[in-house]
Specification:
The complex is a heterodimer of chains A (323) and B (318).
Chain A lengths: L4 E9 L12 E10 L4 E10 L6 E10 L6 E4 L18 E9 L2 E11 L5 E10 L7 E2 L14 E11 L2 E14 L6 E12 L6 E2 L13 E11 L2 E10 L12 E7 L6 E2 L19 E8 L2 E7 L1 H4 L3 E7 L3
Chain B lengths: L2 E9 L12 E10 L3 E9 L11 E8 L2 E8 L18 E9 L2 E11 L5 E10 L6 E2 L14 E11 L2 E15 L2 E13 L5 E3 L14 E10 L2 E9 L12 E7 L6 E2 L19 E8 L2 E7 L1 H4 L3 E7 L3
Antiparallel strand pairs in B: 1-20, 2-3, 3-4, 4-5, 6-7, 7-8, 8-9, 10-11, 11-12, 12-13, 14-15, 15-16, 16-17, 18-19, 19-20
The chains are: A mainly beta (323), B mainly beta (318).
Chain lengths: 323, 318
Amino acid sequence: MAAMRWRRLGRLFDPREHTLPAGCREYAQSPQALVFDDFVRVYFSTRSVDPANGKFLSRVAYADFDRGLRTLRGVSAHEVLPLGGLGTFDEHGIFPFSVVRDGERVLAYTTGWSRRVSVSVETGIGLAVSRDGGERFERVGTGPVLGASLHQPCLVADGFVRHIGGRFRMWYIFGTGWRAGAPGAAPDRTYKIGQAVSDDGIAWTREDGAIVADRLGPDECQALPAVFAIGGRHHMVFCYRESFDFRSHAGRGYRIGHAWSDDLVRWTRDDDAMPLTGEPGDWDGAMQCYPNVVEIDGRVLMLYNGDTFGRHGFGVAELEVAR
Amino acid sequence: MHRWHKLGRVFGPQDVDAPPWMQSFAQAPCAHVLDDVVRVYFSCRPPPDANGQYVSRSAFVELDRADLFRVRRVAAEPILPLGGTGTFDEFGVYPVSVIRDGEGWRAYYAGWTRCESVPFNTAIGVATSRDGERFERLGPGPLLGYTPDEPFVISGPKVRRFGGRWYLFYIAGRVWKRVDGRPEPVYRIRMATSDDGLSWRRENRDLIAPRIEADEAQASPDVFESGGRWHMFYSYRGSERFRGRENGYRIGYAWSEDLLHWTRDDTRAGIDVSDAGWDSEMISYPHVFEVDGTTYMAYLGNQVGREGFGLARLEGSL
């Protein structure tokens, strides 16, 4: 495969510079692009503080840019989808919020967060639909379309959906379990990338098991797959990290991984085929995560978060393709 | 017209020299007639933790087939361990519905996890056994989890096989209602069908319309065939002040010709709370079974089975 690399174009959006809905001040996580005729809307998850206990609540907003992803046009004044009701799977956060067009509608595959007691959180993948071009979304039901199952026991999340070959296809992650990295430590989670298919986007049939080989071994966490095509080959970017000591320990946090497939069944991991390296000291120097790839006007652009999981916003890189 | 003649309380952990994990409660009875005994699976609890919170375990007691009031044996261990950290059944296995499957056994059960904004959530898991005494999970996660239409509190499984097809009657939560500042779940009776008991197709609708109020909660559907139609006994309660006699659980009744469409007629339940005693405030978790030509209903009394379950005998025909 011809060598390709991501050329970093810099940070695109810093949430501290804008007024965000619901009192959110920091975090613009998991940017997800939706291309319009004359602009690009980038959904992201920002955070407010729960007055009940000081914990974060992830909420969805968007920022609009020109088609070159150079100039900010505006920021949503409203929450795109309010949090779920008491006891629902998305009561304590929606992150990420992954969009795909379906005719006149825009579908959003949400990851809902609800807090637990013995572990911090459980998640599930929900579906919401917009009929006004992506301004506001309404849920399809109050529960998730994909959640824990017999062999995927927890933390089903990060649904990314595309309509390919007459079917909806989803790439997502599932938890393999919670374990404490050291005696007395709080349990940490490990998750892997899986895939599922559907005829209606609501009822999904999943493959059991992980589809992307580990690079770091069984403790590797893989998150936020995004799939796109270049020249007839399917590519997946995602982020991966160690299960333990990943928040502050240099070299154990998120970076960008890559896999490719010609049949959407078997995936070959090849992180070096499309490398992205952060610039030490810059906004993405210590961490690169939550990639989303969009093709606009012949350019292949990757939105992603940098240090501290996107607390200070997202940036963009452009694929330099040998054609 | 039928009625249930109450025979009294049969079993509670306080009656026997029970192990610590079986200190109180004998909930959700599920009977299997064996050679000399009737084995009744049930769920019980060790003492609460420092925060007053319980876990639920499941076990069985064997009653003499000729005298159901005579306890012959009590399980020495729970039939299934609790789930691991962060799994759906980490904090409880309750209730359990056990069915024979060829030479072996299968158990469908509700697993309990603890949540922050509401006290718990449940989903239905499955486990198998060769001897019916010790079960192993088929996987660490739930078999029936949450869906857009069934967002939480998936519980109360009763598994049946009719005409070679698997049926699962269960409940699904529809709302958590805040009552005096405390979240209380409202749930309704649902059904799913399957060819193998593992891959289920849900009907996605309530089988029984609410009667006493819009937020009526319904639990523990128990379905069997008799006289050419299907019968369902279940329990229902109000959404507020349901921990006492006023709005506590009562047993209801419905019948069906096709298992899909049910006619509710609680006037034909044939059983109500007693004026005094162990079942004077509420009755719930009905389970109907037949032993040597006599039809019995096992059911729970006050505080949803804190003192155990009792029996009533069918008089008249359904």
